[in-house]
Write a structure and sequence with these properties.
Strand content of chain A: over 45%
Radius of gyration of chain A: 14 Å
Order of helices and strands of chain A: EEEEEEEEEEE
Oligomer: heterodimer
Structural class of chain A: mainly beta
Strand content of chain B: over 45%
Number of strands of chain B: 11
Number of strands of chain A: 11
Helix content of chain B: under 10%
Distance between the termini of chain B: 41 Å
Largest interface: A-B, 23 and 20 residues
Helix content of chain A: under 10%
Low-confidence stretches of chain B: none
Chain lengths: ~120, ~110
């Protein structure tokens, strides 16, 4: 398996523009998570899905952020309009739930580094 | 909400030295995970712990699940330059679906 695939790896945009980050989880995983990482706040959970259904979006900063998971192999995180304070590295991660060894372990993608000017 | 206190925040050590870091929680966890993050990459799992008292090794790394279920420790023996990075602990309480992450320990290794 190629692991969790994120795109783009780097995005530089101007304030007010729409940003869409994409994620392909590991095939068969039933949970997908979106995290944001900054020096000041560390790793923050934004939202997570179970079987494509959003379960907890309490970490989404504000209405400018939205996430979708139209099918088991694809998710998007959208910021509209973007602001300089949104600059961060955004990680997607997936896992398979269960009670077996290795269950519940998050596998992260390489991240999307967003810079909003 | 639950919080994980990870210490130390940063460490500067010489190659060959042993390293210890730990995480403590205000509540019980049923799973402890240790991740390492290299610059420009996502966190990568080092060790997973599932039982109180469990001691697990992965090469030069050894991690322990505290018997109180409220703490975990990671040791790195004979550090080498490629050990440089940020180490995160993470805990999963019971049947909850969200991992709680520590704030990270930034490790620098000098020659």
């Amino acid at each position: 398996d190629a692991g969790v695939i994120q795109s783009p790896r780097h995005e530089v945009t101007e304030m007010g523009q729409e940003v869409t980050l994409r994620c392909k989880p590991i095939s068969g995983h039933d949970y997908l998570f979106w995290y944001r990482q900054t020096m000041m706040r560390g790793l923050e959970l934004l939202i997570y899905f179970n079987n494509n259904v959003p379960i907890d979006d309490s970490g989404m900063p504000e209405d400018r952020f939205s996430a979708k998971m139209p099918n088991a192999s694809f998710s998007t995180l959208k910021i509209q309009p973007s602001e300089p304070r949104d600059s961060a590295v955004y990680f997607c991660a997936s896992r398979l739930s269960g009670r077996f060894s290795g269950a519940n372990v998050l596998t992260f993608g390489a991240g999307s580094r967003l810079t909003v000017l | 909400g639950q919080q994980l206190n990870q210490s130390p925040q940063s460490m500067f050590i010489q190659e060959g030295e042993d390293v210890s870091m730990n995480c403590t929680s205000s509540s019980i966890f049923n799973t402890w995970l240790w991740y390492k993050q290299d610059p420009g990459e996502g966190p990568v799992l080092l060790i997973a712990l599932y039982k109180a008292g469990e001691l697990t090794s992965n090469g030069r790394l050894t991690a322990q699940f505290g018997i109180t279920r409220k703490d975990s420790f990671l040791n790195i023996s004979a550090s080498i330059p490629s050990d440089v990075g940020i180490y995160f602990c993470a805990g999963l309480p019971g049947t909850a679906s969200k991992l709680t992450f520590g704030t990270g320990t930034r490790l620098q290794v000098t020659l």
